Amino acid sequence: MTLVEPRARRGIHPLVVPLAVDPVEGVTIGLYVKGEEDCASVVRVAGEGRHLELLGRNASEYVHRAIVEEEWRSDETETVVAAAAGAVGVSLHNHGAFKTSGKEFDVYVTTQIGKFPSSMEGLVRRHLKRDDVQSALITCDLYKSTFGEWGSSHAFVADLYNDLGRGEEARDAARNALQTPWATVGGDETIKRMLDLAGWSGKTVTEIKEVLETRRGPNAAAFDGPKSEKQLAREEAELLLDQVAAGEIESATVNQRLAECYMKAGNSTLAKFVMCGSGSPADAALDGWSAPERYTATSDDENANPENVQRELMRMKRRGCDRAEKLLHSVSPVRESETRKRHKVFRELQSLHDSQNSILSSMGTLLEKLEALKLKG
After folding, report:
1. 277, 318, 263, 252: CA torsion to nearest 10
2. What is the torsional sign of CA 242, 257, 10, 289?
3. CB count, 10 Å around CB of 188?
4. Cα–Cα distance, 118 to 309 (Å, whole number)
5. Fewer CB under 10 Å: which end of the chain, C or N?
6. Given this model, what pLDDT does residue 91 score?
7. Does 147 reside within a domain?
8. pLDDT digits over 325-347, tens only?
9. Domain for residue 156, yes or no?
10. Could you tell me the residue range of the domain that residue 151 belongs to?
11. Distant-in-sequence, close-in-space partners of 61: CB < 8 Å, separation ≥ 6
12. Could you give the CA distance from residue 231 to residue 229 in angstroms, rounded to a whole number?
């Protein structure tokens, strides 16, 4: 794994902040930002940046699970991941607690840390090995209720029903999977398999959404009323992201339109976040990279005069605000005074940059150590 700049988002899912990349496997580890209120999930990005695999609902649970996994896979003296997590790791887990519990890994993780797709699927397979189909299906229901917004949970259940010869239930589960964000369903093969099970093979994303819309009934509009501009904008944003996941369009071509949709839907923060993703390629490593240094006058600097220094600092600040203003103009008309708007956008972008650097600093080392441990195992 190689650390990357959080802003190096070109070529990956528009709502993901990259943290590290494996150029050999072609996968990226990052944070999936779904909205203003949602906590960013830890994901693995594959399929040319189009497909997401959920690794943890949040960074805390992901780190906690990684520490326990290290204890499970290694001897008592191996605490590389825990050491990398530092004080955070100590607050999350007491070393040795897993082995003294006597529980299986997936059971311990689910009961003591939180729910993870990989562990939930592991519990289902555990029941199936014992020929306990009923318990497996009950666990599947828990899996779907916990991760219902992730298509991978429905795809897993659809495959299970299909293996059990329960065709109608497999079809319904596959159709549920295709009503979630397609990026969360799985890779291209999984999407194709869900289309086949759903009976929608050969249909485009737009055609499938039209089918789903007609199933609301001919009088749906009369009962629900006309769709608002915000709702239509949200639906268009979902359509664009699903088309990217299906490989119908390139992610690099939708950023501006996607940002416009989020702005119309009333989510200006997400709109600006998407527009900030039009930067350098995601394989730009952090080696040698550092944040730009602030202007500092020296004794032999011709601009060392206090007035010149102040003028230079103001010029640099205005230049940054002007760039931020152009970004905002690309997705929304001007509604505030020039001065207030410039300062507001400048602060928001600076806050985003600071938070991304903080995330990178706290998780980068952990990702490298965890990957090294897995390769060693």
Report:
1. -20
2. negative
3. 15
4. 56
5. C
6. 85
7. yes
8. 444 444 444 444 555 655 665 56
9. yes
10. 115-197
11. 113, 114, 116
12. 5
